[in-house]
Amino acid sequence: MNHIRQFLAIALCLLISMACSGSKRENNGNPEKTNVDVTLNPKDKALVVFFSHAGDNYAVGNIAVGNTKIVADYISDITGADLFEIKTNKYDGMAYRPLCDLAKQEQEDNELPEFEGTVDVSQYKTIFIGGPIWWGTWPQVMFTFFNKYDLNGKTLIPFTTHEGSGLGNCVDDLKEIYPQANITGEFAMYGHDVRDGKDRVEKWLKKLGF
Q1: Are the CB atoms for 104 and 24 separated by under 8 Å?
Q2: Residue 4: which H helix or E strand, with range?
Q3: 179-186: average pLDDT
Q4: pTM of the predicted structure, to 2 decimals
Q5: What's residue 39's pLDDT?
Q6: Cα–Cα distance for residue pair 34/77, rounded to 1 Å
Q7: Helix (H, G, I), strand (E, B), or coil: what is residue 131?
Q8: What does DSSP assign to residue 160?
């Protein structure tokens, strides 16, 4: 009888453990894993908001077109989404290491660099948001954009280019800034792969229904 009670107790513990772990979703570091929400409507007119750094970049050298811009252009080409580039001349002509140091200082100081232009976000229900990973999250100039535009109530699809950081803290930071937004479908791609990676972007967008 004692053996039966012990067996039942162990079985009950296992069932409780499985129920708890079943509610937890993990990325496990997969840089191209997507989290697709069924409320996404690809028929809605979409916008791609992005920041991209041309010039001296890690792993790809001095480039005329930034890694993230290439991915943003792929998205626009495949889905028909409009583009808005967050532009600033603050980093023009900077070598990679000084730029890294400046980006870290901006983050520590919570600086919000100015950017050029404006965009009417009210006409879009779905907005792709893209950028490189600078010190674990979006570049500070993107936080200037987030501070200016209220994107709550919209579907936000984050994407990043990186050289090992994946999505970093980008998704969590968006969720903190826009708690009422539907944040889904996140995607990350190595910067050195983007020039030959349109097929991977297309595969990701097909998973989202585009």
Answers
A1: no
A2: helix 2-22
A3: 98
A4: 0.81
A5: 53
A6: 20
A7: strand
A8: E
What residues form DSSP beta bridges with 48?
A: 83, 128
Phi (first) and psi of residue 63, to 5 degrees: -115, 145
- Give start and end residues of each alpha helix (H) in 123-165: 140-148
Find out whether 34 and 207 touch, Cβ atoms under 8 Å: yes
Query: What confidence score (pLDDT) does residue 43 get?
Result: 72
Q: Indicate if the pLDDT at residue 28 is higher than 80.
A: no
For the chain, percent of residues with pLDDT exceeding 70: 80
Classified as helix, coil or strand, 15 is helix
Q: What does DSSP assign to residue 102?
A: H
Tokens of 177: 């800034």
Q: Which two tokens stand for residue 71?
A: 């991915």
Q: Which two tokens stand for residue 172?
A: 């969590």
CA nearest to 88, candidates 103, 104, 77? 103
Neighbours of 30 (CB within 10 A): 11
Q: Is the pLDDT of residue 112 over 60?
A: yes
pLDDT averaged over the chain? 85
CB atoms within 10 A of CB 33: 16
Residue 78 token pair: 């495949």
User: Which pair of tokens denotes residue 192?
Assistant: 């050195």
Please state, as a whole number, how many other Cβ atoms lie within 10 Å of the Cβ of residue 95. 10
Q: Count of alpha carbons within 13 Å of 207, Cβ hemisphere only? A: 16
Does residue 97 have a pLDDT over 50?
yes
Q: In angstroms, rounded to a whole number, what is the distance separating the alpha carbons of residues 204 and 6?
A: 48
State whether residue 147 is helix, strand or coil. Answer: helix
Higher pLDDT, 65 or 14: 65
